[in-house]
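=== How it folds ===
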Amino acid sequence: MKKRIFICILLLLLTVCSKEKHNETNKNNTNANNANPKVEKLNINISEYFPPLITRNQYNSFDMDGSKITIISVAKYLVGNKNKNTRILEETTYSNGKSSSTINYYDVTENQISNDVEVELKNQSFWEDHETTYEIKDTNKTVYTKAGKFNDCIVVKKIDKSSGLLAYIYYAPKIGIIKMTTKSSKYGENIMELVSTKYSPYNEPTEKDESRKEEDSISMERDGNNAPTSIGNAKSGKLPNKTNKSSTLNANDYAKKASEASMKSFEQYIFNRPDSFEEEGTDQIWHFNHGISLKVNDEVKLKEVYFDYENGPNEEAFLIARALIIGLDPNIEDSVNESILFTGKEKATFEVGEFKVGFEFDERTFKLLAIVK
């Protein structure tokens, strides 16, 4: 199930107000329009104000109780030619020793940045959505945050008329949101600002790629049935048969090791708090983000690792799989791990520590399963 949330709790408050208005009648539109400023089209490429792929932004803010909130936002690409305008912000929020992850979907064009709730930024001076108004106050602002100095920033003034909530949102080219201030009689004042940003270039599909049937920019080889059999040197293998055996590896220790590997590879923890739990006899299945599940026994010993990646075989899928394999054996070397993922052998399974590992993929899916030997 796709989760949608904005870049922090502050923006979520604004968004909820906007979303509620979709279900109300618009009784006061005529009177509100009379007070609206003149709408002017701006000569701005709005897509330039969404973080490019792959950008990792870190923000700091504060909760209503004064505790610090840290938000890690990573801009990604939704695989598929039909989704060429769709972008993803995958965000992890840390507060009071707890963390949660969400995936946010945006439609990004030269004229606007939008989601299923609102048009967040538009190539015009003013727009509104029921009782929420948006006004661009500046298009050439210089803004300072803890991450540095940013020129040519767009400043959006956002007002929810029903609650009186006022926000100023600052967008920098090639970065996205760098600062946001909010003020209301109910929630008081708050600030969220960018403290660091890191960009790792991503090769967007070219016009030639768009004309092909592949749903990713990575080249795929196919057999006579037109089924993809490889990505570069990676060959689609097979999943091992389940054994229902338990390992001696504590599931929490495994998750910690795998998360350390993922943070090292692409600066993101793949294991946070589970999204849900499922009981299977005396065993439990923990479901996490990215389509990752862990099966554990009543002593929290790891029995299975299952990874079902819905965006198909791309770079992120292999990076996550790599981290999942590293967690299985504390002594595994990177070179051994790479030989598993890029062995060049079809329909193969591999032994890693106490586990047998296999993965398979086609054009739309990528799956990995590790079971105890």
Remarks:
- Residues 251-266 form the longest helix (16 residues).
- The domain at 9-199 is CATH 2.40.360 (YmcC-like fold).
- The radius of gyration is 23 Å.
